[in-house]
Amino acid sequence: MTDAAQADLLKALYDETLVGNRPRVLELTQQGLEIGMSPDSLLFEALIPSLEEVGARFERGDFFVPEMLIAGKAMSAALDLLRPLLADTGAETVGTFVMGTVKGDVHDIGKNLVNIMLEGAGFHVIDLGVQVAPEKFVAAIEEHKPDIVGMSAFLTTTMPMFKANINALEKAGLRDSVIVMVGGAPVTQEYADAVGADGYAPDAATTVRRAKDLIEHRRAVAV
Ligand code: B1M
User: Fold this and answer.
1) Which fold has domain 3-89?
2) Cα 155 to ligand 1 centroid, rounded to whole Å
3) Which of 130, 157, 184, 215 would bridge with 153, disulfide CB 3.0–4.6 Å?
4) 96-222 topology per CATH
């Protein structure tokens, strides 16, 4: 297939995600894969930029929650299709990662993408879902004894839950036994430092690199 035809497909995928046309988004994603386009290009050159535009339109008041919701559902469906291709590397387990979106926050697309990339890099990921309360993080850490607990927040109003979760870990005597990583659209390195997290990453690929470095560092210190 020509470059022009691939560009047309990416443009169509971007446009159909923007209007939340789930069946068409699935069809185009499938079509892209069938003609040999990489999952990365479908993700980073169409699906993610389209959701960014959805957010920009929401901010301007051109889109409302329902539009955001259907675009999110279309993107999630495409992500389900891409998941096995992004995750299936056959890599050895490099560590265990408990992951959740904080209490009060229902956004999960970014978290799910991080999970897919972590699984692809060989992490065993335990996904606690969305709206995860501090007690649930504590219980999951007690049960699974992960190397890392990851917390996502996508709203400025839910970011303070990082601190609440870290306080709960301290209270349960678990803070020193687990690496805490935080992330999500409004989160910054400064904010992560301020709440006392061990690591922050702006996107899924960086999360994988950062997670591996943090585990390596902790294991080296423990020896
Ligand atoms: Co909402 N929403 N939303 N939303 N939504 C945002 C986040 C917003 C930025 C839109 C905007 O105004 N531009 C805005 C937040 C503003 C703010 O707080 N600063 C917003 C708002 C205001 C809201 C509501 C309050 C709207 C309302 O009801 N009035 C409401 C809140 C509901 C709640 O949670 N209590 C709401 C609801 C929703 C929907 C349910 C409709 C839907 C969510 C669907 C879903 O997730 N299943 C939705 C959507 C789709 C969006 C936007 C358009 C897209 C989010 C997304 O999936 N992006 C979003 C606008 C935007 O982000 N530009 C928006 C794609 C995703 C791949 O990127 O999420 O950045 P991202 O994930 C990245 C990184 O953050 C990072 O890696 C990911 C992959 O590369 N990362 C980590 C994530 N977790 C990490 C963890 C790590 C490390 C990195 O370590 C552990």
Assistant:
1) 1.10.1240
2) 7
3) 184
4) Rossmann fold (3.40.50)
